[in-house]
Amino acid sequence: MSPNSTFHVRGGRPLRGEVTVRGAKNLVSKAMVAALLGEEPSVLHSVPDIRDVQIVGDLLSIHGVKVDRDVAGGTIRMDPSAVEKAHVVDIDAHAGSSRIPILFCGPLLHRLGEAIIPDLGGCRIGDRPINYHLDVLRNFGAVVDKREMGIYITAPNGLTGTKIHLEYPSVGATEQVLLTAVRAEGLTELTNAAVEPEIEDLIAVLQKMGAIISVQTDRTITIEGVERLGGYEHTAIPDRIEAASWACAALVTEGDVYVRGAQQKPMATFLNVLRKVGAQMDILDDGIRFRHPGTPLRAVAIETDVHPGFMTDWQQPLVVALTQAEGISIVHETVYENRLGFTDALNQMGAHIQVYRECLGGSSCRFGRRNYNHSAVISGPKALHGAEITVPDLRGGFSYLIAALAADGVSAIHGIDLIDRGYESFRDKLTALGAEFWED
Ligand code: EPU
Questions:
Q1: CA distances to 234, 410, 421 from 77, in Å
Q2: pLDDT given at position 128
Q3: Considering the domain 6-21+238-439 in this protein, what is its CATH number?
């Protein structure tokens, strides 16, 4: 389908059936970057067929990595034995819509002595600066030079282990430290690190390659640099964001969906909230079944946070579910300053959501008393009706889809292709669940 096509959904049908989630987008892309650090080939399993994987695969290829992908089988083999410099125009052309190039820096500095970061993409959910990443690289001894074509980074004296404290436990900055420190000279100590399950899984990948990394209970990560890393063979952890998205879709449409691959432990915080909302679930070894209770859903107050808190990426699908809950729900977004913009379209569809600058319902966060609408008050239940809407970003986009599936009448959704960045075969999955949609 062309990027300009419109996706029409006739809502009002409960989603019923089974979907399978494969490897997490936010691990797979990083594990692919890690392969660059090795002297031998790496093999990653459970790789989903999403656009972000294609982007990272292309970026690896233009740097001389031989990438062989079995899309249907979900396996990708990466041979980095002939890593080479890429042309800046090629990096720019392949990276345009992703933030991943920033994570190539450490590995490329180790392998080639230089790295170039073009203008970065990613979802427009806040400023999404890269200052932590550049500070981290400087800490290891890299020289950062901002040029017209992008940011040019070199390491004239090599990279040396260091002490780093993150002012905020950023996922990307933690990964930047890991991917750089594993082959830096000496010891690195990172405090206030992010410890999301995807980061634990990246650490597992790096350990298989020969890295020495320990994680303390106070979120300090210590890395002892090694001279050489080998390859790895690894099965990615399942995508807990996609799993939660289907769970909310089941709830909002009053359906019943078995999400094969959904895992209890990395989703524990989400499952607690969904229980409070009233969802019924069967938590099994190979997946979780989510279904509507048949009675009104209940309002909740939540606050997004770093792990083990409620993920910011679960927030948007949950908000759609909360439009159907009885009473007033409060959502305080503390990870991104601008991740509630998608609520305008939900209001257009009949929801009643007001956003506030204040930190509502929980502790005060770094966005309080500033000009950021980062708290939402949702009054429900409100019947949703079809509307014409445009996908704003990946997670917001999937939430629109959920809202459209629950709404009365037909919705016309523009820009649906953005969802292909992170939701594997969502059209096939919708069909399997009995949704009615068409594209033109
Ligand atoms: N931040 C800075 N400076 C930086 C980096 C981050 O101020 O240099 C701020 C961000 O603006 C944000 C906060 O720190 O307010 C947290 O950002 P973080 O670095 O943790 O996010 P990220 O690594 O860019 C990843 C995921 C996001 C997910 C966040 C939080 C990937 C590719 N992306 O982003 O996923 O929301 O962690 O868990 O792993 C998505 O999948 O749709 C998505 C946006």
A1: 11, 43, 21
A2: 65
A3: 3.65.10.10
